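Input (structure):
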């Protein structure tokens, strides 16, 4: 633990300079700088500090957080995240007695004041866990991450036994938490937090609503190497149906220039979402923004799930299913093994390359086929986890009266 704190203390000036450069360049504001360094207030004394990395994690937890504000009208929430778009998203929820801010660095002097801390998925920060009674919700711990905890001497033994409770994402994560020192009695039954996802209640912008739904498909959260496959499949579909529209959404918008070069190399024209509304007649929309994935799902009759043609383990199938978008995916589904197993070949189309992706899209070009497959996916992924069970565990462990 001392080694971790020493490393973080040494790195702090560098982070302060980095965040200041962002503010000077107009990428962020000085308010953002203050929030990231822990200079933006003392948090929520007597309340609950909730932390999630970004949009996906927090959107999945929204039903739980909304229920907490309803069941505990005297409990204030401070929700922190690592991205500006996630903070804006939480502000847009307008939950009662809830504030949103960027997460402070995990230094001892920057920790927010709160009665307890609720952290989502993979966000395990030692100083926060040491300072606050902490529950990890939808907690995910990969084999690689578990090994990483042992690289700093004394860190895991100082952190994991301090967790007040863990609701793991899967059985493998539960085992790893136990191996790192969390008592078995403090580990609940696994819950896939993303299975509780509810689509945001917002209107589809007119430019996206104008896209031909039955001909529009989405490549969601793609990684390097996958865009080549996606673009080749799109070219194949264009040869069959010139009105086919692709929304290509890289996992990291910072790669937009790289992806744009791949598009241009194939002689395709693309509109970049960051430049404004999508013009009529667009056949390829490069989605280089954040916080709009739910809109892209809604605008698309079919979705290829990125990260499944790489070694990344794949991204969530729950969100496209919730929006009624038929699912296609590659073979690497390690991050959501149970969910993809539940889908099977009847509720999702497995693909391995551009040819099989194009063939799958051709099958889904029949609107009734896409609708029926999307319905099967929604049924297969219907939440098996009980939100009430999650709430009861949280309330018991945090000493909240109902």
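Output (sequence):
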């Amino acid at each position: 633990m001392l080694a971790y704190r020493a490393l973080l203390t040494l790195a702090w000036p560098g982070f302060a300079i980095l965040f200041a450069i962002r503010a000077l360049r107009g990428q962020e504001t000085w308010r953002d700088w203050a929030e990231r360094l822990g200079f933006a207030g003392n948090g929520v004394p007597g309340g609950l500090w909730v932390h999630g990395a970004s949009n996906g994690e927090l959107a999945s937890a929204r039903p739980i957080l909304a229920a907490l504000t309803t069941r505990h009208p005297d409990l204030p929430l401070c929700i922190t995240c690592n991205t500006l778009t996630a903070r804006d998203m939480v502000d847009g929820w307008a939950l009662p007695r809830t504030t949103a801010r960027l997460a402070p660095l995990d230094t001892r002097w920057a920790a927010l004041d709160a009665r307890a801390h609720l952290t989502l998925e993979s966000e395990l920060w030692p100083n926060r866990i040491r300072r606050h009674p902490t529950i990890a919700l939808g907690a995910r711990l990969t084999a690689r991450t578990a090994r990483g905890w042992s690289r700093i001497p004394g860190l895991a033994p100082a952190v994991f036994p301090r967790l007040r409770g863990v609701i793991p994402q899967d059985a493998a994560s539960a085992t790893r938490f136990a191996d790192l020192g969390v008592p078995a009695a403090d580990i609940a039954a696994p819950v896939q937090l993303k299975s509780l996802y509810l689509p945001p209640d917002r209107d589809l912008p007119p430019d996206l609503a104008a896209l031909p739904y039955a001909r529009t498909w989405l490549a969601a959260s793609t990684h390097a190497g996958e865009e080549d496959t996606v673009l080749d499949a799109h070219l194949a579909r264009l040869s069959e149906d010139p009105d086919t529209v692709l929304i290509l959404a890289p996992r990291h918008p910072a790669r937009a220039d790289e992806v744009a070069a791949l598009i241009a190399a194939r002689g395709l024209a693309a509109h970049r979402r960051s430049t404004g509304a999508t013009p009529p007649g667009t056949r390829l929309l490069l989605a280089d923004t954040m916080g709009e994935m739910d809109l892209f799902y809604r605008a698309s009759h079919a979705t290829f799930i990125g990260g499944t043609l790489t070694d990344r383990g794949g991204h969530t199938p729950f969100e496209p299913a919730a929006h009624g978008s038929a699912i296609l995916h590659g073979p690497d589904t390690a991050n959501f093994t149970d969910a993809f197993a539940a889908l099977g070949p009847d509720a999702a189309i497995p693909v391995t390359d551009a040819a099989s992706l194009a063939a799958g899209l051709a099958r889904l070009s029949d609107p009734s086929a896409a609708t029926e497959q999307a319905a099967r996916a929604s049924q297969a992924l219907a939440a098996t986890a009980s939100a009430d069970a999650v709430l009861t565990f949280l309330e018991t462990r945090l000493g909240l009266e109902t």
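Notes: The chain has 17 helices and 13 strands. The chain has two domains: 2-191+385-398, 206-380.
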